[in-house]
């Protein structure tokens, strides 16, 4: 979908309508266009924020996201399998990323005392400082790119909607 062109279907988006041919069993261009706009809006905003963070901290999207997730987690640690799922990574991909983060002194692996099958990835003091610096940049970027555009109420509604979609669909890909 060309971001620069004006799509008449997008301008008149009504995802609750039954659509033309075939009723709700037919192709719904307005529904498809609306969903593609959601994806494009998220992708463009996410990439802008990731690029800003990457430029300032010399970190890619994966490491920055993992550090932010650990910063907001209880005790600044998460089980690695849970972290991989939340970050949309494979277990092997997270293992390689964890190796790099541990090697850089930003995280450490910690065995679970109750269940030896579980390994946590935990921020070190240096990792916490780095994650807090990333969080400050990301927060400012979110203010400028999201809150200034859709306002706090719009952002709250968007977050609630995305939470509902995540919860309704998180198990369907397994």
Coarse morphology = globular
Strand order of the largest sheet: 1-3-2
Structural class: mainly alpha
Counting copies of identical and different chains, the oligomeric state is single chain
Tell me the major beta sheet. Answer: 3 strands, antiparallel
Compact description:
This protein is mainly α and 174 residues long.
Task: Give a written overview of the molecule.
- This protein is mainly alpha-helical and 174 residues long.
- Helix content is 64%, strand content 7%.
- The protein has 6 helices and 3 strands.
- α2 packs antiparallel against α6, α3 (61-72) crosses α6 and α4 (80-87) packs across α5.
- 16% of the residues are buried.
Which descriptors apply to this entry?
disordered N terminus; single chain; mainly alpha; 174 residues
Helices, strands, pairings?
Elements lengths: L7 H4 L17 H29 L3 H12 L4 E3 H8 L3 H13 L3 E5 L7 E5 L1 H45 L5
Antiparallel strand pairs: 1-3, 2-3
Helix pairs in contact: 2-6, 3-6, 4-5
